[in-house]
Amino acid sequence: xxxxxxxxxxxxxxxxxxxxxxxxxxxxxxxxxxxxxxxxxxxxxxxxxxxxxxxxxxxxxxxxxxxxxxxxxxxxxxxxxxxxxxxxxxxxxxxxxxxxxxxxxxxxxxxxxxxxxxxxxxxxxxxxx
Length: 129
Hints:
The protein is of the alpha/beta class. It has helices spanning 21-30, 84-93; strands at 13-17, 34-41, 45-51, 58-62, 74-81, 97-98, 112-116, 122-127. It has a single domain, classed as Roll (2,3-Dihydroxybiphenyl 1,2-Dioxygenase, domain 1). The strands form two sheets. A four-stranded mixed β-sheet has the order 1-4-3-2, with helices on one face. It has a four-stranded mixed β-sheet with strand order 5-8-7-6, with helices on one face. The chain is globular and about 50 Å long.
């Protein structure tokens, strides 16, 4: 087995099983994400990618595989903001399902909150230091 590094360079996409793609697209666009890809694939599917305004890793909003349900997941996806309180207030004003308050645990943990998308998936927002 080689001890040299692989040729992997970046994480480009994280796939979220999304039964209602148009609803999810509208939701993420309301948060400032930009739709970069929306193309048909297979007989009846669409491949959709949305990206945050200044990020290079996107979310693929894809239908669940045939015969499977898109069950809500704690995704482990962490988004960053330069102002956690303003972002929390903005999400609330948009009607996003967000935690009631920003969590402040103290150093070294940054202020954070969780929100849920229309499919029930949980994502976290943290204040970048």
